[in-house]
Write a structure and sequence with these properties.
This protein is mainly α. It is built from 14 helices and 3 strands.
């Protein structure tokens, strides 16, 4: 069994595989699966979430991959092309791995602490300002345009990595009032209204690329690491948090949940079909005073 795990290769060999391979194999070997079929299921599920985490800019770390928040984020957004049954199987395999490697979750639904890094934690206002300045200070025009466009698509439109890669210039429509409507492609196809601070960046990118790809228009191959490759090439600034598209999407969601806006509108704009994926964001919502809650509940029709 050890030899089979050590020789495992995913069928499609994504570009990120070389970065995550050792951690994937080591983690599954530690779980000591007893059958070849079980080992294959665990390896497949862990590879999928490892590649997804790599696309979000995370280091290869099984403790981060198996964190409950990451598993739920992956199940909700990281494998849109698979069936609900396959998604449920991935979640079950990852939960079993977490239990085998890190121990069971604590009673009462409180998870075992897994990592100081939380891909669901929104960026603060200072973080956002720092990221914008960092993107604009990159040494090449390609990096400056690409990174600021990522911020516009993540913080301004709530898109994840897989939704950014196939976008084309005509998917952006600028209305007479200056607002930008983005037509998201794929299984979660939907229109999204870009937040006002990022309208100009999105409109300029669409104008620049014409009918070509919106993000990295000169990159004709569109592998799954199209986004993370650009982020990895950027010059780092230790004073600025790392750009992670999962955190950008979380920021977009939390900011709108705090307004608040009607849930059907939020779910439609986010491409979600249930509230389950939002539960991981509840710790980051603003608190409400007892007086505010009293008034709000009393004045409801």
């Amino acid at each position: 069994m050890e030899r089979r795990i050590a020789q495992y290769q995913p069928s499609n060999r994504p570009p990120a595989w070389e970065r995550v391979a050792d951690e994937v194999r080591t983690t599954v070997a530690r779980a000591t699966p007893t059958t070849t079929h079980r080992a294959r299921d665990l390896l497949t599920a862990l590879t999928r979430i490892a590649v997804y985490a790599d696309q979000q800019g995370h280091r290869p770390d099984a403790r981060l991959w198996l964190a409950p928040a990451m598993v739920e984020q992956f199940a909700a957004a990281g494998c849109p092309e698979v069936s609900q049954a396959t998604r449920a199987n991935y979640r079950a395999c990852l939960t079993a791995l977490r239990t085998a490697i890190l121990g069971p979750d604590l009673p009462g639904g409180r998870p075992v602490p897994l990592s100081a890094s939380d891909s669901s934690q929104p960026y603060s206002l200072n973080d956002k300002a720092g990221l914008w300045a960092w993107a604009g200070g990159q040494p090449t025009a390609e990096l400056r345009r690409g990174l600021r466009l990522l911020l516009a698509l993540g913080l301004g439109c709530g898109l994840d990595t897989t939704e950014i890669i196939p976008l084309r210039g005509p998917d952006v429509r600028v209305l007479s009032d200056g607002s930008c409507v983005l037509a998201v492609r794929g299984n979660r196809a939907r229109p999204v209204i870009c937040a006002r601070p990022y309208e100009h960046t999105l409109a300029q990118a669409a104008k620049h690329t014409g009918t070509g790809y919106l993000f990295r228009p000169a990159c004709f191959a569109r592998p799954s690491n199209t986004v993370t490759d650009l982020v990895y090439r950027a010059t780092r600034d230790p004073r600025v948090p790392r750009l992670v598209m999962g955190r950008c999407r979380a920021t977009w969601l939390v900011e709108r949940m705090n307004i608040p806006i009607p849930l059907p509108v939020l779910l439609a704009a986010a491409g979600l079909d249930s509230l389950h994926a939002l539960s991981r964001l509840l710790p980051y919502l603003k608190g409400t005073s007892a007086e505010q809650a009293h008034t709000t509940l009393r004045e409801m029709p």
